[in-house]
Amino acid sequence: MIITSLLDTDLYKFTMMQVVLHQFPGAEVEYKFKCRNAGAAGMGDLAPYVNEIREEIRGLCSLRFQDAELAYLKAMRFIKSDFVDFLGIFRLNEKYVTVTAMPSGEIEVSIKGPWLHTILFEIPVLAIINEVYFRNTQKQPDLAEGRKRLNTKILELQAGGLGELKIADYGSRRRFGKAWHEEVLRTLVARLGTGVTGQFAGTSNVLFAMKLGLTPLGTMAHEYLQACQALGPRLRDSQVFGFESWAKEYRGDLGIALSDVYGMSAFLRDFDMYFCKLFDGARHDSGDPFQWGERMLAHYAKNRVDPKTKTLIFSDA
Q1: Facing residues of 30 across strands?
Q2: Per-residue pLDDT at 216
Q3: Quick check: helix, strand or coil at residue 122?
Q4: Is the separation of the CB atoms in 259 and 220 below 8 Å?
Q5: Using CA atoms in the order 93, 97, 101, 102, what is the torsion angle rounded to 10 degrees?
Q6: pLDDT at position 42, please?
Q7: What is the pLDDT of residues 48-85, one digit of tens each?
Q8: 249-254 long-range CB contacts below 8 Å, 24 or more apart?
Q9: Nearest by Cα to 1 from 45, 59, 71
Q10: Which DSSP state fits 202?
Q11: In the β-sheet with 311-313, what is the strand arrangement from edge to edge?
């Protein structure tokens, strides 16, 4: 079984799920899988593996949170005890997922149901699809080449003048496989170091954070602000509604705002002086990172906030 723990997912699924439990428990949602690189130029046909994918999802739905996992979550300062109690009885339900082989060779995966009961499907289902595909098409993976490329990237990070640069892992849903994911993390820890003086800040994967003693990272994903388009009072106010709902839940904690759901101009319009001061920083996720950074610095200055007191996070995805 590929997924053997419900912690094998990104932290932001739990932080968003807690908001859903407390503020939107009746919300209904639908997710659909889209293979971005299907065809000859990228990932091949997935349809031959549809039964294998279904079996892995069935195994996922058999999992429950273990006592040690619940204790780990409860120890996080921003996770509330009633949410942990809910997770103690939580189980993913296979009835909310359909996986269909298409004549084109692709697959259709649809997840539909209560947001609270479906939010944890996304990351493990994507990880399952990836690993099922690669273990069937790369039966003898070229680990030597993978280690060579990883070494090259680490040496680039260790170049002069980059000692203060920190990186983080957000690769759970994109990974080649769980075992390789763990090897990459262990190598980054050993070669880059962690803590104040290290360059490796942590991982979004909660299971590996617990297992390897890393800092679990994440706040909100696009999913959250997109859902607020339907949950908020008006579409044009949905981003403000999303940030205010987040602040209501976390009271200043988990204060990294996602900036590109509606475009940078709309983000800056809504991210006023109140949010500039309340949130710890912002995350870039699309477009030119240099232009984004300059616009954020100018926006903080315009709102009389010292940008040196804020954190800007850049994504390579």
Answers
A1: 112
A2: 98
A3: helix
A4: no
A5: 180
A6: 58
A7: 999 999 999 999 999 999 999 999 999 999 999 999 99
A8: 249/18, 249/19, 249/22, 249/23, 250/15, 250/78, 252/278, 253/77, 253/78, 254/15, 254/78, 254/219, 254/220
A9: 59
A10: E
A11: 256-258, 281-283, 311-313
Residue 63: how many other CB atoms lie within 10 Å: 19
Question: Which residue is associated with the tokens 């804020």?
Answer: 310
pLDDT, tens digit (0-9, with 9 covering 90-100), for 252-273:
999 999 999 999 999 999 999 9
Bridge partners, 256 (sequence order): 281
- The C-alpha atoms of residue 217 and residue 225 are separated, in whole angstroms, by 18
Where residue 104 falls among pLDDT bands split at 50, 70, 90?
Answer: confident
* 3-state helix/strand/coil string of 70-111: HHHHHCCCCCCHHHHHHHHCCCCCHHHEEEEECCCCCEEEEE
Residue 22 token pair: 């407390």
Q: Which amino acid is at 225?
A: L
Q: Which residue has the tokens 């493990």?
A: 124
Handedness of CA 171, 177, 182, 183 (dihedral sign): negative
Q: Give the pLDDT confidence score for residue 43 in this predicted structure.
A: 65
User: Which CB contacts under 8 angstroms, 24+ apart, belong to 133-142?
Assistant: 133/43, 133/44, 133/46, 133/49, 134/176, 134/177, 135/177, 136/48, 136/49, 136/52, 137/44, 138/176, 141/176, 141/177, 141/180
d(CA 284, CA 239): 16
pLDDT digits (tens, 9 = 90+) for 9-36: 999 999 999 999 999 999 999 999 988 8
Q: Identify the helix (H) or strand (E) that includes residue 116.
A: helix 115-118
